[in-house]
Design a protein that fits this description.
This protein is 45% helix and 15% strand. The protein is built from 13 helices and 11 strands. Strands 8-7-6-9-10-11 form a 6-stranded parallel beta sheet, with helices on both faces. Strands 1-2-3-4-5 form a 5-stranded parallel beta sheet, with helices on both faces. Helix 2 (55-66) links the parallel strand 2 (43-47) and strand 3. Helix 1 packs across helix 12, helix 2 packs antiparallel against helix 13 and helix 4 runs antiparallel to helix 13 (319-349). The longest helix has 31 residues, at 319-349. It starts with a strand and ends with a helix.
């Protein structure tokens, strides 16, 4: 069984989805099940978000028409409506893609699965929940420094996205209220804010970011409606207990390896608790193994492939039906793109 990922990969620092897909592609290659040539694949993994233009769907449609009996899996995020604070149209577009082309869905967390069903109605037969995992060759415990209360506790937060919902209101609050005689904090990524006390570092390559994580003590994330934060997983794998907003998939990921907060005013107290019981939390850190995650993807792909072979998939439709659905999706995307361009113009005009 050969797998091909339908995604335009980006080299260097980029969003969590891109980093995860690069990691799992490396594992597929290591196991000898990945093919770079789409025509030779038995299973296609389609990433639901992000894509900037309709060419990704055009490519998917072309492959589906040429190879209708092959297996198509949807790795879905979101709902993006909750993550980005935009319209629901993009999520309905993803639902339409699922209905037209997909044989199975991989949700990244139970929270994401429930919210997609509750808000958008996205579903497939069959579906599975598989958490992400970072590249273990990069994000690991090697060279992690020892924690000590004889110095300032070092906090780190990271985010590729500069969306305000990525926790920046909380970081601004901490910038003004945290006890800087006890703590120092670094933010790595893109930020819509300037900081007075928090050190801001621009996005870094994964190897550099991993080394920076291991030089800190506590990872902080305040991102809202985050289905399965890759930045959180990277920090946990580098040995950092985490303090996270009690939202999205954070509670599922942290388990006993950190604490949750509901209001920004709780953060200083929760940080103090992490410092007081640091070794306990560090000893309870969950480990997210990209090798095991890859095997979970392969098991699901095999199960869906067997199901499609034994019982013709409802998504193995004739060419005329696919063409009609494709035209619907293209019109939907054009409408969504128009709305987003208008929204950007209105924002710039304020």
């Amino acid at each position: 069984m050969k797998i091909h990922i339908l995604y335009d990969f980006v080299d260097g620092p980029y969003g969590g989805g891109n980093q995860f897909l690069k990691a799992i592609r490396s594992e597929f290659q290591r196991l000898g099940v990945y093919t770079q040539e789409a025509e030779k694949a038995d299973v296609y993994l389609f990433n639901g978000y992000p894509f900037a233009d309709f060419s990704v769907v055009e490519h998917l449609h072309d492959i589906k028409q040429r190879f209708p009996r092959k297996v198509y899996l949807f790795r879905i995020d979101g709902p993006t409506y909750l993550i980005r604070g935009n319209h629901k149209y993009y999520d309905h577009l993803l639902k339409g893609i699922c209905n037209a082309y997909m044989d199975g869905i991989i949700f990244q967390s139970e929270w994401s699965r429930l919210k997609n069903k509750e808000i958008i109605g996205t579903a497939a037969r069959p579906e599975v929940i598989i958490h992400n995992a970072p590249d273990r060759r990069i994000f690991n415990l090697k060279t992690k420094r020892k924690f000590s209360t004889d110095r300032k506790t070092k906090i780190i937060a990271t985010s590729w996205s500069s969306n305000i919902r990525k926790g920046f209101e909380v970081y601004r609050y901490l910038d003004n209220h945290l006890d800087w005689s006890r703590y120092e904090m670094t933010f790595v990524g893109n930020s819509p804010l300037q900081f007075k006390n928090i050190r801001w570092v621009k996005p870094q390559p994964s190897a550099v970011l991993a080394q920076m994580l291991r030089q800190h003590d506590i990872f902080l994330t305040a991102s809202q409606n985050d289905p399965c934060s890759n930045s959180l997983l990277e920090a946990l794998n580098c040995g950092l207990p985490a303090l996270a907003l009690n939202d999205g998939g954070h509670p599922e990921l942290i388990s006993s390896g950190g604490l949750l907060f509901d209001r920004m005013e709780e953060v200083p107290k929760k940080l103090a608790m992490l410092v007081d019981y640091y070794e306990t939390f560090q000893g309870a850190l969950p480990v997210y193994d990209i090798g095991q995650v890859t095997l979970n993807y392969l098991d699901f792909a095999k199960a869906v492939r067997k199901s499609c072979t034994n019982d013709k998939s409802p998504n193995q439709r004739n060419s005329l039906t696919l063409s009609f659905r494709y035209l619907q999706l293209r019109g939907y995307f054009q409408f969504y793109d128009f709305l987003m361009r208008m929204q950007r113009k209105l924002t710039r005009g304020r």
